[in-house]
Amino acid sequence: MASFSAESYFATQAPPPDLEQLVDGVREFVDRHIQEGRRIVLVTSGGTTVPLELNVVRFLDNFSAGTRGATSAEYFLAQGYAVIFMHRQFSLQPFSRHYSHSTNPFLDFLEFEEGRDGSNGTPKINVSASQTTHLAQVLKAYKDVHTKGLLHTLTFVTINEYLYLLRSISKELNRAKRHALYYLAAAVSDFFLPTQKMSEHKIQSTKGSLIIEMDQVPKILRPLVDEWTPEAYIVSFKLETDQQLLIPKAHQALQRYGHHLVIGNELHRRKFEVVFVSPSKAKPGKFEENWIRLQDGQTEIEAGIVQQLVLRHTEWLEATTNAL
Ligand code: 9Z3
Q1: What is the Cα–Cα distance from 264 to 54, expressed in whole angstroms?
Q2: Does ligand 1 lie within 6 Å of residue 236's CB atom?
Q3: Are 23 and 169 in contact (CB under 8 A)?
């Protein structure tokens, strides 16, 4: 199995055709918020796919509904951040997630007003008293955010689109310096098939079993931290299904990439508890862990995660400003 460096990856895999246009939108968004003195967070959300054919019929997917990213984006907006929300196409999005087709289908809010002739008549919106308060809150936040231009949304599907977008956005966001925060919650493929090795057409079943050797996706956090956006506050997520691995894997990531924080979560407990792993201030070379758990009366753990993160970003900004 080959392992690509970030450099060899971008030298051999073609960029998505609409990349430049997407980056223009990000540039305009970043510059406006820098001018207005706002902090900017990049939230990545949802899973990346790995196509197996050039004319893609089959692909490998990464698990993620996009709940973590979409929910966190709302809390960042509530804390005054401008949000670049880079998500898997059709995964959950801030605000609309409350009324997604599976959790709260829009059609359930419509009713027929009976016509005079006894026919079905015209559909009317019917929101019950118990639903009104919540709907009004969501709608108000949504309208405010859009009127003020605080949310910029971009989509990816494949790992290739994700990697190119992340690189391009980070180069733009670099201008926000330490006011930029990265919240890398997307579930990213570890393996991929380079286009040079892909079959052009649909893989045929006539040969019996299918053996595919994939290459390793480059570890993108290293150039992100060292080259593309060296001044920002960078938070990555670590997903494991074996709870015992969470903390050692988080240590390994911090040692390798030298970023600020890893948020560890175990697949089945991710909605109830996560662990913040970061370099220890008191003991250089060591790490510290802080568990964040869903509190009584809270419905979403992201409230606690984002609150804690904003505190850390603020403290770090103050400490690094004083050190200058
Ligand atoms: C996460 O760990 C996210 O918290 C989840 C959120 C994907 C579990 P949902 O969207 O789930 O709310 O359903 N994201 C990061 C996963 C990841 O790919 N991390 C890489 C790794 O673990 C490192 S960047 O190796």
Answers
A1: 35
A2: yes
A3: yes
pLDDT surpassing 90 at residue 294: yes
For the cut 70, the answer to whether the pLDDT of residue 3 exceeds it is yes
Instruction: Enumerate residues 6+ apart whose C-beta is below 8 A from 141.
Output: 74, 77, 78, 95
pLDDT digits (tens, 9 = 90+) for 146-161: 999 999 999 999 999 9
* Atom number of ligand 1 nearest to Cα 263: 2
Report the topology of domain 6-96+151-323.
Rossmann fold (3.40.50)
* Chain segment 90-113, per-residue pLDDT in tens: 999 999 999 988 888 888 888 888
288, containing H or E segment:
strand 287-293
- Contact by Cβ (8 Å): 181, 41: yes
* Structure confidence at residue 104 (pLDDT): 84
Query: Among the listed ranges 113-122, 144-153, 209-218, 245-254, which one has the minimum average pLDDT value?
Result: 113-122
Compute, in angstroms, the gap from residue 237 CA to the centroid of ligand 1.
Answer: 6
Helix (H, G, I), strand (E, B) or coil at 55: coil
Ordered by start, the domain boundaries in the chain are: 6-96+151-323
Which SS3 state, helix, strand or coil, does residue 96 take?
Answer: helix
Block residue for tokens 């880079």:
86
Closest-CA residue to 45 (of 93, 78, 83): 93
Distance of CA 282 to the CA centre of its chain: 31
